[in-house]
Each structure stands twice: as structure tokens, then as C-alpha cells.
Amino acid sequence: MNIIGITGTLGAGKGTIVEYLTKKKGYMHYSVRAFIAREIQNRGLDVNRDTLTMVANDLRATHSPSYIIDCLYEQACISGKNAVIESVRTPGEVASLRSKGHFTLFAVDADREVRYQRIKERQSETDNVSFETFVANEERELSSQDPNKQNIAECVRQADFIFQNNGSIENLYVQVEKVLKDIEDKKHHRPSWDEYFMNLADTVAERATCDRGRSGCVIVKDRQILVTGYVGSPRGLPHCDDVGHLFKKMIHEDGHITQHCVRTVHAEQNAITQAARRGIALEGSTLYCRMTPCRTCAMLIINCGITRVVCQRKYHDCSDSENMFKEAGVKLEYFYDEVQQYDNQ
To answer: Which residues of 228-240 are buried (b: 16+ CB within 10 A; e: fewer)?
Structure first.
């Protein structure tokens, strides 16, 4: 049994992927929207985008951040068949599904103008809004400091596979089919050492204490783990998950604007400082992490003697780090040759 969760931006193509999985691959379909709509009707309210968001947030706050998804997952397990759950919207839901096993998270995105045109064409009652309202709705749902509320950006960041859907339906189907084959192959695939340690880095990330960027890091030498680290506040200081975030807006050279939490220490920095506290030499070791290390992390990596860095994906603006690694002779490798699309915007 394989359970696939679908997350992504409004109008990006979540429903299209679900249709392909159900009609072409025989997956059972479990809809978060349908689950919430039934609850809305039970409360005697009209089903619209505002009530969908309000009731969903209320259910998560009353029960748990993963309540809706947990109910759907239980239904899927009872069926015993491959299933797709549409749509995953909070980091708590992702964490809960991962803890249960047999789970893969798909994310789909597309340019905002393309997505707006799509929702206008489907003429759904809840999608009959102006472009300005569409943008406002999306900004509200893209990220939140409340773990019970929607945070699409973080869910997409944690996805196993991200589909860019600016083209035709056929092109999206090709992307999905390739990924399904990869998933099937992995069922019979013994992980490489790089895959093994990257999986451990993802596990370390579950200890992170900032929901704006849960990431982990593992440093290894001769196939032995030397030290680990995850995103969190300095020792003895309050955690973002408990007291909220301290934001700083950054404008990058490529024009991309991001909001970074300045309360936390990056996973790579925490791993390196842990090694220093324990007198562990990192000379000649390999570091595993989710995205290209930032400039500060890159400098620390170089100075402590790490000679190889393995990342899942590229950070959107990573030329400084890449150039420094190249000049210093640090080998930089990626699992997926694609740019991480969401980064604390």
C-alpha cells in the first residue's frame, strides 16, 4: 500500500494529479475539502472559501494540527489500497503522515497568473473571485506562525517531489508517471550511503524548533556519524515554536524577497558547534543537508575542514556558497537538480 499526499498552491493542478492517480492508476481518493465541507454543512453554514478555512482551522485547533489528515489516513488504511489524500496544508499534517509510514508527499506549483486563469475557467463557486482577492487568499494561506493554520509554503518545502505545472496536462502526466516509477523502483531499492545519511538528516529535522524552516544536518566520516544538528534557538533561549518568530526581510541579488527568522541557528551551524563542544575533528568529513548552505554556513564548513557537501536541492540564490566551495575545493553535490521554490517568503 502506498499513500500519496498532495499539497500545492491554489489552481496549480492538485486535482489534475488526483484525477490521474485515480482514473489511470486505480488510487482511492480522500479529499480534505470534502471532509471539511461535510462538517460545514453539519454546522448549518454555507460552503465557501472563508468557511472552508475557518472550519478547518477550528478542527485543527480543537483536536490536533493533523486531525483531518489522520481521519483520512485511517480510512485509507482500512481500504488497504493505494490512496491519494488531497490536500495537505499544515506542517503538522506532514509530520503526522510521515510518522505513519507508506507515505509520499507530492507538491505542485505554477505561475500565479497561470493559476488564476485556471480557477476562472473551472467556474467553481468558491473560485469566483477577482485577481486581487485571489492573491489575498493565497497570501493568507501561504504561511502562518500558528501550527494549527495553513502553511502551504512549508508543506511544499517538505515535499518529496515538486511538480512545476506551467504547461499542458499531458506534460504534468509525464512528470507524475516518472515519479511513480521512481517510487515503485525504490520499494525494491537498497539505499546508497548518501541516501541513507540524507534520510537520517530528514529524521534529525523533526527535532527542529522553528516551523518556518525545519531542516536537519548530519556530518559523516568513513560512513560513521560524527555529529548532527537541527534548526533551533541558541541554548537556553526561547524557541520560535513556543514564542513566535523574529523576521528580517532580505532582498537577494536575483530580486527574490524572503523573510528569514533571525532567532534560530541553522542546522549546519548547530552541527559544527556541537562538534566543537565535544572536541570532534571534522577534517575530511561529508555534510548532508536539505538545501545549499547559506554564505555563513559555507564559510564555517570550509574552515572546519569538511570536504564534501551533499544537498537534496538547490537554494534559489546560492551562487556565493557555490563559488566559495569551488574555490576552497569543497565538493558540492545535489540529489535533485532543481531549485527549492519556497523559502520563508
So the answer is: bbbbbbeeeeebb
Respond yes or no: is residue 268 known to be catalytic: yes
Instruction: Quote the CA–CA distance of 256 and 250 in Å, as a whole number.
Output: 8
Give the Cα-Cα-Cα angle 54, 56, 59 (nearest 5 degrees). Answer: 110
Backbone angles phi, psi at 14, to 5 degrees: -60, -45
Residues near 243 by beta carbon (within 8 Å), at least 6 away in sequence: none
DSSP state of 190: P
Count CB neighbours of 242 within 10 A: 8
Residue in this structure with the C-alpha cell 487568499, named with its chain if needed: 137
Residues 90 and 57: their CA atoms lie apart, in Å, by 10
Model pTM score: 0.53
CB 194 within 8 A of CB 310: yes
> Alpha-carbon distance 159 to 212, whole Å?
14
pLDDT digits (tens, 9 = 90+) for 47-104: 987 898 899 889 988 988 888 999 999 999 888 889 999 989 888 888 888 888 778 9
pLDDT of 176-186, one tens digit each?
A: 999 998 888 77
| Partners of 227 in beta bridges | 219
Beta pairing class for 331-334 and 308-313: parallel
Residue bearing cell 500565479:
112
Q: One of 121, 268, 327, 338 is an active-site residue; which one?
A: 268
d(CA 20, CA 172) in angstroms, rounded, equals: 10
| Dist CA 208 CA 269 (whole Å) | 13
Q: φ and ψ at 166, to 5 degrees? A: -95, -5
Residue 25 in contact with residue 180, Cβ under 8 Å?
yes
Alpha helix segments (H runs only) across the chain = 14-25, 32-42, 49-62, 67-79, 91-100, 112-122, 131-142, 152-157, 169-187, 193-205, 240-243, 267-277, 295-303, 319-328
DSSP secondary structure string, 214-273? --EEEEEETTEEEEEEESBPPTTSPPHHHH---EEEEE-TTS-EEEEESSSBPHHHHHHH
| Distance linking the first and last C-alpha atoms of the chain | 35
